[in-house]
Specification:
Elements lengths: L2 H109 L8 E6 L2 E7 H4 L9 H15 L4 E8 L14 H19 L7 E7 L10 H7 L1 E8 L2 H7 L1
Parallel strand pairs: 3-4
Antiparallel strand pairs: 1-2, 2-5, 3-5
Helix pairs in contact: 1-3, 1-6
Length: 257
Amino acid sequence: MSTKKYNALLVQKDSISLGWEASRNKVNALEGEMVSLRSDTALLNAKITELEKKLKTLDENYSALKSNTTSEIQKLADDLQKREARLTEVEDILRKRDEATNALKDKLQKALLGFQQNGLSVDIRNGKVYVSLTDKLLFSSGSIIIDEKGELALKELAKVLKTQPEINISVEGHTDNQRVVNLGQIKDNWDLSVLRATSVVRFLTEIEKIENDRITATGKGEYQPIEIGSSPEIRSRNRRIEIVLSPKLDELYNLIK
């Protein structure tokens, strides 16, 4: 073989060796990249699995929250409906009370019409009927004994009260602000107001047979005047018996409870 041909073969060999080496280096590089890609893929799969678990948990929490919220909304709606129903019942009871109070006032005004020029009045305050009788209609000056004219007024009042067993009765005694003098065992206006109220209660219960458990007596003395002043006219208006009539509200109280 000639030297020229031999040298050409050596050059070709060297070229092939270099190509093979380059190819092997590329293969090695690709294998490294493949290992890296496999590692990245494994990490991504782990991330995906973790995110899927979180998404599942979120879905479960959302479903539970949605269910609880719906349940709470329904409960609130039911409670509101019950409250509205109870409010309607309360309003109905109060309406009936007002109707009964107005009807009672009308009955009393008709029954006591003949006494209204002698210091008797009937009016409604705070859902209650007040029958106000000046002391001169019931008592002599400084006395706790009901006179004949006062008995007639109380008899007419009792006729109406006997037809209204659902009405509670409170008898309040009131005096003027003048000091009590020379009235024996009556020490002051407290005593006078209480004893006059008690006299009315005894007449209504013992003579007119109004039920004892419906009626109470209280003395207010001079401390709840109709008017402030010391003129004879003002003092006369302040000396009075007020019979306060209020409907029994057991039904309303039970409903509120």
